[in-house]
Every structure is written in C-alpha cells, then in structure tokens.
Amino acid sequence: MLSLSSLFQTPTPDVKFEEDIPIPEIELPTWLKQEDLLRDEGVLFGLSGSEPTEKIKIIESTYEQVLASPNQKKMHLHEKIGELNLILEQKNKKLEDNQLKISQTLSLSTEPHGLLRVSIGLALAIFMCFANYFLIKDGIQYAYPKDANWIAWGVFLSGMFSLYAYTALIHTSEPVTWRRALEEWGMPLAASLFLLAQIWPHFTWYKAMAYFTFTLFLFLLTGKLLLSTISKWKWEWDKFKNNWSLNKNKKLAHKEWPSTSDALEKEMEEIRIQKWNIVQTLNEVEAQIQRITAEKESAIHLFLSEYQLAKQYRFENAKIVQK
Mind telling me which residue stretches traverse the membrane in this protein (predicted)? Predict the structure, then answer.
C-alpha cells in the first residue's frame, strides 16, 4: 500500500494534520489471488450446478475490504486538500488586504497644519486673560479692599465666559435680534458698568470711561478668543497627530509591510507545493483503486466464464448419458 508520510516533510506553521489512522491491509485468499485456482472454483461451481451468486458476493466483499484502505486514504487526502485550500484562501485575503493597505497609505498626503502658530496664539490669549484679571482687581480694591481677590475673580469669570458662541455678533451677517444681543452683550456690559461704578469716585471721568470701554471690549472679545483658540488648537493637534501617524505608516509601507507580503507569498508557495504533493499521491491512490476495481471485475468475469463453460459441459455430458 502507499505511504503518506513523505507528503508532510515541510509543513507550514498553519498546517497541522493528525496522523493517519492505520488500516489493516486485507490479504486476498489464495483461490482469488491465483488465476488457476479461481478457474478451478468456477469449474467446480459449474459442474456442481450451484448458483454463482453467493460466490460473486464473496469476491465483491473481499475486494471491498481490500479497497477500504485506499478509499480511506483517498477521503483523508481530499480533506487535507480542502484544508490547504482554505488556508490558501485566508492567506491570499491577508495578502490582498496588505497590498491594498500599502497602496492606500502611499496614495495619501499629509494635511498642512498651523499647530505652532495656534499654540503661540493660545499662550498669548491665556496671558491676556490673566493680565485682565489684575486690571479688574486694581479697580475692585478701591471699594472692596479686603475681598478684592474673590470679587475680582467673580467679575472676571462672569464677564469673560458668561456665553460661548462659535461666532460673535460682529462676525455674523445674520439679522441680530434683541434677545441675541442681550444674551451676548448683557453680562459683559453689566460687569463693565459694575467696574465703572467702583472706580468713578477715584478716577477722572475720561479715565473712568476709558477703563469702562477697555474692559467692555475685553469681556466681549477676549473670552471668545480664548475658547475659540482652544477649539482651533484641538483641530490643529488632530491634524498634527494624523500627519505623524501617516508618516509613520508610510515608513512601514516602504519597509515592513512589503516584507509581510513577501512572507505571505512564500508561505503560500510552500502550501502549494505541499498541496501538489498531496494531489500526486491522491492520483496514485485513485489509480490503485481503479486497478483493484479492474482486478475485481476481471476476477468475476473469469469466474463466470469458467462457470458457464463447466455448466455447458455438464449439460452436454448429461445429454450423452441420456442417449
């Protein structure tokens, strides 16, 4: 019988098969192996007048037992080929995905960003806001010398960050309703008037009005500038991270990812070689099955032909005796 151990000398890491279950080989009986003895069996059955059906069933059953081992190996080889085809399909899918990832990555381009410029603007906006706090504190301490720090923080935060909208009224072309104007200007105006009331007795009228005008526009614009710059900085930071990640992936696409494709192609080639070896053995096993089947048909034909000749001879002798 054929041995399958030579098929798996170079298995890939992804291909692991169980050992073949040994099937005992069935030895043909002597009368079936030797043509002369098989002829004698046919002659004996023909001369005795027995029906050949049972003997033919015995011949067929014996050959079916002989065919059990190669049929089992044939089924086992088909299973292995199916497993190898599945592994090849999976690796080919990985190869296609990797090549698509390489082409898509190399086709992308980085997006220009202004992270440095926005970072400097954010730092200046933060410095501007906290400098305003000291200006407010200086105006508050005339009326509230003991609690100037806390009151200054309250006025500072309520004036600066009472409302955060993406677009200020001075930057929009939409019609302005009184509710929208009150929502945006109400609290900054109130904070500036509160400060004006605290410094009026201590400043000349034109200095007090300049203080009022300066703090009003600080409240209206600086808070929105800080918060919008923070949002802008986040957008620019995301662009910077995406560019950094893209540049890193492009380096991988030039070096490591092609190596992965080469390794997959090499593994697929090894599996194809292994599959080819199994197909070769499968062809040998199928040829063996066909040969044994042909031997079975030949044995049945030989037995029947001798049986018919002996039967005919018996009838002719019987006629001679009757005469």
Answer: 115-136, 148-170, 209-227
